[in-house]
Amino acid sequence: MPDFKINTTDEIDAAYNTLQATFRAGTTRPLAWRKHQLNQLVLMLRENIESIVQGFSVDLRKPPAEVLTGEIGPVVRRAIQSAAQLDAWASDESPQVREWQRTWSPTILKRPKGVVLVISPWNYPIFLSLQPVIGAISAGCPAVLKPSEIGPGVSSVLADLFPKYLDPSAYRIINGGVPETTHLLKLKWDHITYTGNGTVARIVARAAAEHLTPLTLELGGKSPVIIDANTTDLKIAAKRVLWGKTLNAGQICVAPDYALILRSAQDAFVEAIKEAAVELRLDGALASDSYSSIISDGHYMRLRSLMTKSLGNVVVGGSTDDAKRRITPTVYRDVKEGDSLLEGEIFGPLLPIVPVDDIRQAIEYINAHPHPLVLYAFTEDAELKQALRDETKSGGLHFNDVVQHMSIDTLPFSGVGESGYGSQALKYTYDEYTQLRSSVDIPLASSVDRDEPRLSARYPPYTPATTQV
Ligand code: NAD
Asked: Which stretches make up the Aldehyde dehydrogenase domain (predicted)?
């Protein structure tokens, strides 16, 4: 395992200057060069699966199956697709214009914005770090990636691999914590992508504002799941929701945060949750190698504190292992407004069930809180589906399962309001780093007989005839 080495401010400045020079020199612009870098990124992952899995086991004791399916697999797939589609994305576009403007060659040029800063979190450190890097490469932008210091295992593997596969004059890892990120944020970037929590997002947004740097913010929040017991199969709903809390031990921005259900259906849903917990063998989660640990002592103690303070009744789980920083997926019933579990995003394997008196109350509850990253609902009621489409706001809207929308490469992934702004996935990421540069080329040669007479109306002195609309 490579050591986790924090970069100095001199190294940060040197990397920044190198990347700026590379961009100015035009190195990153040829499409063939970009495709080569994308292929190198694919190779980097495919040839180093073992060390990446090892990095994850240091940080999260993450099951290798989850590393392959949720991290390496999607990045490889999206890098390959980006390379395949790059010619189409990057080609100039000719907009529709009025007949007499055709000779002006109006064109939309796709131009790289410049040098990009990507600041990523620890919870999906390969996917969330490399998806923006794929976008930057595709768009022809050099990039600095600052992975999370809270997951030093994967961050140090990335620092070791980047210079072996990617052009170091264009793609660099900077490792460090708050001081190093603060230094990075003082520099003038052409775009910043930050994935993480809303508090730090505000620090990043303030720093970006100093230079008027455009920003993509991928944030989190409390993603609700509505269980409409009248029309849904509770067994399937319970199993799918519980799975959403076991995956990466609930440390995923799109995990269902809390469940809203009619009070009269709560008993039946709790029974279904208990059955699902047996089926998923969650009583063995503390020792299971199909289950992740909590990332750090700080996050583990935060979750333990939520458990201690909650006034909800535990219906499954509740056990913990301090040495391994493990928490069995734990479900609470009869959780009320004001409970510790309903304060902030849980980001761990705890699921509060919040009973409501009717489904309108569920919609009102959601609308009274910040717009979530995803809104989940298990329902076959067409009217309820339409009401959720029309009357609520969220980054994504997902019926009858959880997290699964992430597996569709062509859907834009984004938050809204406090869950963030800007979109990612394939061309959506490419677009974040691409400037649409408008261009016209009005022919001088034909001006005398064509354009100049027609344009004469714009010159003063104005007359009523020349100012008609
Ligand atoms: P984190 O603590 O690793 O922070 C993310 C990044 O911010 C790191 O690189 C870190 O170094 C940097 N950072 C931390 N403090 C900073 C400061 N004071 N100044 C500048 N930079 C600083 O990760 P996290 O925030 O705990 O991640 C979890 C959050 O991210 C959750 O809210 C989750 O919902 C959200 N998230 C969102 C997405 C998404 O795509 N929308 C994906 C994953 C996680």
From this structure: 8-437
